[in-house]
Amino acid sequence: MVDDEIDITLTLKIALEQSGFFQVEAFYESVLALSRFKAGEYDLAILDIKLPEMDGFELYRKLRKIDHKLKICFLTAAELGHYRETDSDIMDKLGKDYFVAKPVDTINLIERLNSMLSQK
Questions:
Q1: Residues 43, 16: contact at Cβ < 8 Å?
Q2: CB within 8 A of 109, min separation 6: which ones?
Q3: Reduced to 3 states, what is the DSSP secondary structure of residue 2?
Q4: In the chain, is it the N or the C terminus that has fewer CB atoms within a 10 Å radius of its CB?
Q5: 107: exposed, middle or buried (C-beta count within 10 Å: 0-12, 13-18, 19+)?
Q6: Which residues pair with 2 in a beta bridge?
Q7: Mind listing the pLDDT tens digit for each residue in 55-67?
């Protein structure tokens, strides 16, 4: 999970781990997360879109080059239409089910993540 808002990251990490379905490694900086990422080590990445240094879309592209099987879920505080036209390829490819609005409903998030992980 990568989100620069520490309180959100810690809250989601605790909720996801307490669900019994997930082990979560949390990062507050996209560059650090990318530097520690290894192919095959993670099944899913939860990325905030608005991050300093490297936004979630750019991080997504770099992570997928390293591991094309990695599943992605984006967190966003803005409407999807707010994002750059250059990122529409990601939104079109993944579909709206891969975007979760903040504030996050943890029960809904857990259900979505389990659904994503069960897909091939």
A1: no
A2: 12, 15, 16, 73, 100
A3: strand
A4: C
A5: exposed
A6: 27, 47
A7: 998 999 999 999 9
Q: Cis omega (within 30 of 0) on the bond before 103?
A: yes
DSSP per-residue string spanning 43-109: SEEEEESS-SSS-HHHHHHHHHHH-TT-EEEEEESS-GGGS-GGGHHHHHHH-GGGEEESSP-HHHH
Cα–Cα distance for residue pair 87/43, rounded to 1 Å: 23
Whether 113 contacts 13, CB under 8 Å: no
pTM (2 decimals)? 0.85
